[in-house]
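The freezer alarm interrupted the setup, so I double-checked each line after restarting. Inputs confirmed:
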Amino acid sequence: MVKEHQIIAGNFDLAGRASTDLKRLLKSMATYPRLYVNRVCSASYEAEINIVIHSVGGYMTYEVSETTIELNFYDDGPGISDIELAMKKGYSTASQIAHLNGFGAGMGLNNIKELSDRLTIHSTPRGTHLKMIFTIGERDA
Amino acid sequence: MKLNELMGLMDAKSYTPSLMKDKEINFAFCSDLMSDALVIMNSVKDPTILEHTILITGLATQQSIRTAEMLDVDVVLLVRGKIPSEKVILLAHEAQVMLLSTETTMFNASGILFEKGIRGVKYNIQW
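Predicted 3D structure, all chains:
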């Protein structure tokens, strides 16, 4: 099953909607361990918020199979100039509005890395692509 | 502790009375930063912990409700007299998250609950 969701830049009313839909879908399927669903959706939520805060807009896709879930987040820029620095806990370029919404403290990418089993990031000034793979494992039992 | 008792202790109001349940609360997590709530509450070793957890926050936006929903946490307590907007209340109903508020500060609310045996969710907590 593959599905796509649009993510609108700067819109905190809708920020998290795509991840909420994913959460409700996975919960309704009742096939995955609960802790697994939580970490997939939490990572998705962080990545979605990142697009809302930092980009000019983008979209996410998810592909759900029996043992693996793959999430892809694409945006149209301006890109992450230094990925290593952006991965550092507490490093943030987020605006005041992100802070007022409970995010933007420089934890996002780090949390995504911790919650996912495989994370790849490709970024240029024309856009960023985050690919996350989640496999059911020991920590989900 | 029963949720009703908890509400009485800090004179909390419910914005979602139709969702109110006679729920047992054993754990709590406090944060205004949702990234911390997401990563720390994802490290629990037993999903039933989250069923009996309350999220205490001063963040009265939709993001506190979405965070609770991502984690299967059913109760959000807004502290320091924060008043949620209609949109936030609607989302709480949709997400089946009980939304409460109190004038009590985060530190004092936590102290009241700790005294009653409620413990904080921390990294890799086990019941």
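Quick read of the result. The first strand of chain B starts at residue 13 and ends at 14.
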